[in-house]
Amino acid sequence: MSRNVAIVGSGPGGFYTAEALLKACPGCRIDIIDRLPTPYGLIRAGVAPDHQTTKKVARNFRATALSGPVAYLGNVEVGRDVSVADLQACYDAVVFAIGMPHDKALGIPGEDLAGVIGSAAFVGWYNAHPDFRDLNPPLDTQAVVVVGTGNVAIDCARVLVKTRAEMAESDLPEYAQAAIEAAPIRDVYMVGRRGPIEAKFTNVELREMGELEAAMPVVDAAVLPASAADYPGLSDRDRRLKERNLASLREFATAEAKGRPKRVHFLFNLAPVAILGEARVRAVRFEQTRVEGERAVGTGEFSEIPCGLVIPAIGYRSSGLDGVPFDARSGTIANADGRVGDGLYAVGWIKRGPTGVIATNRPDGVAVAGHIAKDIASGTKPGREALFALLAGRGVRVTSFPDWERIEAAETAAAAPPAPRRKFARIKDMLELLGPGS
Ligand SMILES: Cc1cc2nc3c(=O)[nH]c(=O)nc-3n(C[C@H](O)[C@H](O)[C@H](O)COP(=O)(O)OP(=O)(O)OC[C@H]3O[C@@H](n4cnc5c(N)ncnc54)[C@H](O)[C@@H]3O)c2cc1C
């Protein structure tokens, strides 16, 4: 009997696994299950709307989805519509590729105040993720603090200050574009608890901040080290990257406004210690730090930045899935090289944590496809027909890959060129377009 594999999650982790299984496990039937009718995980809902080239990797995933043994089951949430035990009854192997959808907490007083919105939510909002369509972030402020100095922090800052014209080739939804355009934002502060060398942003993203139409970068030259040469523990490659970042920051330090009304400030060695405000945030309080080894150590000097919106962009977490062992320390599904046990596997962020670029997820998929090919000699489970029967009995409207292609065609048709698509942001609207399923 053919082996039946379910992959839960259609982001890079899920699709790279399907791609690898097609090679490693001939004759396997592969079902990719996602809670959304729209595939591709953070490629659609994380990667910035003005970085369309990055999203093109989805074309390869499309080819995988259209391969004979592969089916897409959208609008099915594991933990809500089906349990892990249900999947184990239907499939010989179940691979979790569910990513890490929640923001890591700052762990400081005031982070529950109105006006504190984590990057997972904020990015989801400007990328039309249905969970965040109605977020309505309070943009009625002149100053925003983004906590973090990684690429996600840069994405948030950049999207807040780019003009409509600069976003013309993006798929930023109109509701977000209109809200950003109407906002009186003048200053965005990107704040890192450690120094410019420890900052995680890559140079392409950093350099872009010096090329914006309406916003200038601001850096105090005095905080920039002369070079990264003496910095311990860096590989040659990392040292070159850090030198490029320092060079960009040095250019920023001498930048002139040239009529640009907005500013993006790069601030370092400041650890947030409290978010201040009564009902809504009015400032963030920071302690000055110095870096000792890998750690930022407080110096006892404090300062405040007044603002009406705080976006912590300090990383992601997951709460796991019922019935699957979870490692609370790392925030991942407990696994040994992707093996979770009993026909269960994990790949992508939920396997190794929220780090790396899209392609970093590929080796996880290759390894797990190899494990499945080795661990499961022949199939004993009924596969997708049994899952379809179960979901039909529960009244779940399962969407297929052709359904997604209809959604995508409608999104493309609705776009005002040069925008590539006008995204649906509500599942209800997607299902209405599709009509009742068969
Ligand atoms: C804001 C942001 C910007 C980024 N920008 C870039 C970039 O420009 N370039 C780059 O190379 N990398 C970028 N990355 C990193 C890249 O997106 C990740 O490495 C990658 O998406 C992780 O893949 P994944 O499959 O583990 O998770 P995800 O992409 O998050 O996919 C998880 C999938 O699982 C589904 N799911 C979750 N729970 C369930 C459930 N219970 N039942 C069914 N389905 C479920 C979700 O709907 C989702 O489709 C960015 C990341 C973020 C957060």
Please explain how this structure is put together.
- This protein has two domains: 4-101 and 318-434, Rossmann fold; 103-314, 3-Layer(bba) Sandwich (FAD/NAD(P)-binding domain), CATH 3.50.50.60.
- With 438 residues, it is of the alpha/beta class.
- β1 (4-8), α1 (12-24) and β2 form a beta-alpha-beta unit.
- The mean pLDDT is 96.
- The chain is globular.
- α1 crosses α12 (362-375).
- The protein has helices at residues 12-24, 42-45, 52-55, 58-65, 84-90, 119-126, 151-161, 174-182, 203-208, 236-253, 349-352, 362-375, 384-393, 401-414, 427-434, and strands at 4-8, 29-33, 70-73, 93-96, 102-103, 143-147, 187-191, 215-218, 262-267, 270-277, 281-292, 295-306, 309-312, 316-317, 326-327, 332-333, 339-341, 344-346.
- Bound molecules: flavin-adenine dinucleotide.
- Residues 8-14, 33-36, 41-42, 46-47, 51, 54, 77-79, 97-99, 123, 152, 155, 348-349, 356-358, 360-361 line the site of flavin-adenine dinucleotide.
- The site of flavin-adenine dinucleotide has 33 residues, from α1 and α7.
